[in-house]
Amino acid sequence: xxxYPIEGQSxxxxxxxxxxxxxxxxxxxxxxxxxxxxxxxxxxxxxxxxFTRLINWRYLRKHPNPLVRTLGVLLEDIVFVVxxxxxxxxxxxxxxxxxxxxxxxxxxxxxxxxxNKLSYGPRVPMTxxxxxxxxxTAFGRKSYLDKPSLPYRRLKGFGRVERNDLVVFNFPAGxxxxxxxxxxxxYTLCAAYGRENVWSDKAQFGDIVYRPVDRRDxxxxxCIGLPGEFIAIRNxxxxxxxxxxxxxxxxxxxxxxxxxxxxxxxxxLDELGINDRDVQILYSYTPGEEVNLSGFLRQMKLNFxxxxxxxxGLIYHLPLTLEMKERLERExxxxxxxxxxxxxxxxxxxxxxxxxIGWTRDNYGPLFIPRRGARVNLTPTTVAAYARCIRxxxxxxxxxxxxxxxxxxxxxxxxxxxxxDYYFMLGDNRHMSADSRYWGFVPEDHIVGKPALLWLSIxxxxxxxxxxxxxxxxxxxIHGK
Length: 481
Description:
Number of strands: 25
CATH class of the largest domain: Mainly Beta
CATH topology of the largest domain: Umud Fragment, subunit A
Shape: globular
Helix content: 25-40%
CATH superfamily of the largest domain: Umud Fragment, subunit A
CATH architecture of the largest domain: Ribbon
Strand content: 15-25%
Structural class: alpha+beta
Largest sheet: 8 strands, antiparallel
C-alpha cells in the first residue's frame, strides 16, 4: 500500500512530530472515553496523519499548479482553525457578550466573557448540522438544520448549579420567536396582543419561528432558586422555603431621587458606575410653573417635600445598590431618596401569565420550583404554573376536557411527575431584569455554563479611548458568587 511520508524533514523533526502525535492521539482517546465512543471513528485519521500516512494529506500543498498550491494552503488553514474553534466552543469554552443591564453592577453591557462549559458539563449538540461559529442565524437566514436532531445529553462536568451561581443558559421562552419583535418574548406578546393577532400581523411581528433548545438565544442571570424549593419575594427580599436569603452584594433597585435643583454631575455618575441610559429626569423646576405632584408621590409612596422657591427641585429615576444609595445620601444637595414601588405599570405581567393573583416583581410567590421525580396534582392553578414545563420543555401533550379533568399524552391524569430539574433565575438589577419572574423556570437541558473570564469591556456611551474601554475590568476571573 502506497504511503505519503513528509519529505525533507530531519530525523529530529520526525521524532518530535511522532511525540506530538502520540500526545494528541492519547488526549483524543481520553476525550472519546468522556464524550462517547462513537467519536473513535475519527481516531484512524489522526493516527494516519501523524504515523501511517496512507492518505496524501499534502496533496494540495504539493500540487504542480502554483495557484492551486496557494489556495490549498489557505483552505487547509481555514478548515483547521474553524474546526478547532468549533470543537473548543462546543465542549470547553465559548465567547459571550452581555446584551442587557440585568446584572449590573456585577456584569455590564459591553462585557465580553468566556463561558466555561466544563463547570456543569458540556451539553452534546442537539442540532449537530449547522454553520460553524454561528448560533441561530447567518446572513439573515437560519444557520442550522432541524433534522437530524439528538436527544438531550450532558457530559460529566466539575459540579452542579448552586445558589448564587452566575449561569449562562438558552432562553426558555425563546422556543417560539416573533422575528420582528423578539423582545418581549412570544408568550408575553400573545398575552398582551392575542395569539391570533401575533400570528396574522406580519408587518408588526414578522414571521413566527420555532427554535430548538440549543439554538435559542443566550441569557445570563444569577441562580436564586434550586429544584424542589419554594421561592417567594416580599418587598424585594427573596425567601427560600420561608427563610430570607442574603442578597447579592451588587443587587440594585430603582429609586426616585430628589435634589434641591442641583443636577447630578457626570463625574459622580461615572464614579458610581451609572450608565447615562439608566438616568431619567422626571421633574425639573421651572420658575413660574406650578406642577402638582401630590398624586404621583402618593402613588409611589414617596415622602418628597417642596423646596422653598424651587418647587420640588430635580427628581431623578435611576438604579442604585445599597452602597451607592448610602454614598448619595452624604451629598448635602440631595433631599430624599425613595425606592420605586411595583405596580402593574412599572413591573408588567409576571409568570404565570394565565394566573392573575396579584403577584408583582417585588411581591411574588410562593412558587414551587420543579424537581426531577417530584409530583404535582393537576389543578387550574398548577396547570397555569407548569403547563409550559409539561408541554414545551418535556414534550407531552396536555389537554383539559372538563373542569378538573386533564389528559396527558391522551391519557386521563390527576397528577404529573416532572422529568427534569428546573431553576429560578434573577438579575442583580432587580427592577430592570427580564428574568424568571416574567418567563418562568430554566430547565436543566437549557443550561450552557458559567462565566469564567471577562476579557474585554466596552462602554458604548464614551469615546473608545476616552473611557470607552474599561481597562480595569479586563482579564478578570469571574467567581460567580
